[in-house]
Amino acid sequence: MIDTESIANELKTALPGCGIEFVANPSPSAQSSLLIQGTDLVAVAQWLKDHSEYRFDYLSNVTGVDHLEKTIKEKVKKTQVVDGEEQEVEETVEQTIPGYLEVVYHLYSMPLRHGPLILRARTGNRSNDVALPSLTPIWRSAEFQEREIFDLYGVTFDGHPDLRRLLMWDEFEDHPMRKDYVEPDDYEYEPTPHGPVLERANAHQTPPSTDAPSETQSD
Amino acid sequence: MDEGLRGELSKHGVFTTTLEGLHNWGRRNSVWPLQFGLACCAIEMIATSMARYDLARFGAEVFRPSPRQADLMIVAGTVTKKMAPQVVRLYNQMPEPKYVIAMGACAISGGPFKQGYNVLKGIDRYLPVDVHIPGCPPRPEALIHAFMTLQRRIDAQSLTGPNRARHLRSDVDSEFPVPQFGAHDLHPPSNPKTWTPPQSVRSQ
Ligand code: SF4
Description:
The complex is a heterodimer. By secondary structure, chain A is α/β, with parallel strands linked by helices. Residues about 210-219 of chain A have low confidence and may be disordered. Chain A has a domain at about 5-65 and about 100-175: 2-Layer Sandwich (Beta Polymerase, domain 2). Chain A contains four helices and nine strands; from the N terminus they run H-E-E-H-E-E-E-E-E-E-H-E-H. In chain A, strands 1-2-7-6-3 form a five-stranded mixed β-sheet. A two-stranded antiparallel ribbon of chain A has the order 4-5. Chain A has a two-stranded parallel sheet with strand order 8-9. Chain B is an alpha/beta fold. Helices cover about 30% and strands about 10% of the residues of chain B. In chain B, the strands form two sheets. A three-stranded parallel β-sheet of chain B has the order 1-2-3. In chain B, helix 2 (about 20-30) packs antiparallel against helix 6. Chain B is globular, with a radius of gyration of 19 Å. Chains A and B meet through loops of A and loops of B. Iron/sulfur cluster binds near residues 40, 77, 78 and 136 of chain B.
């Protein structure tokens, strides 16, 4: 079992100025991870691969996560002067966290038989700042998985040798694994629907409202 | 010919038949399937053609790797939207008479992946399917049953008259438009000539 926190500390001394953050996981799995700034990803990856004590030579898995913009409400205690007296008042502070896409890497070492070490990297937002450096030059196994993330989440990987869609066709424009993906309305025949499928099937059957351009309702 | 007379003649060693019966007997016993599979159902199709289940008993052991030499398309597996145009193109390249068996939940409706973003909700949206087999996957016996059903249907086809078999009529299509890759979905999403959504009546 490797100690992610000590690796984080070593990385910080070995690569000063790199954006490296240790993310603890308090759940029973205790799979903590390292949050790496996108621009430093290649340097960190190269260090982890070359370091004689770690030798992470096997990238087993690359995956994506979509985080929508969210607002968190927090209660903050404040002292306020009310009617000349000092009182403690609870205040609700709303905080908006902008959405981003995250890429997660799982590293193992075959010769030293340890792992996984989990790396994460985040894009700036979900629309125009979605580039991350490709790790394909370091671990060849990243090639297809980065193509899949490009296809399904829309993260572009700089330095990837052949960045094309993997599962969908080239003319396709959406990213199906994003949380706000709207699938085409092909719910015209649902013999045994329930839950959300039933809602979509009913919505398909009711004609669209008057201001919307009328679809072909020949069926 | 009168059934009684035919029976009487056969007792005396005279075998009679019709040209149509002879023709269909030949056709139904040498249906050559197209050799292609799309997902896990294809494994059952392969098992059906091997020694244990032995599809050769029905004259269909010759799986052809070229659509030009095939009579039957067994759509065995999940038809993804990316693959659907190729499946339709293969069908178009088969010479008449041609038949389609949709094998398994995926091929008939999308199956376990029905709500997936990349799965076609049944190949009958683009192709005229003769026999559907439910199951995930259907056992080889089910495929054999589908095959025997198809044989009975071939046997029942007439070669003349207004109800003659499809391949003998000039007013029906034998090729179907290949769907195009669109920005959000296949275009068109289904072919109204082969498929219109059945009206589902739902009680609340
Ligand atoms: S019906 Fe089941 S066995 Fe057949 S292709 Fe689909 S998932 Fe696989």
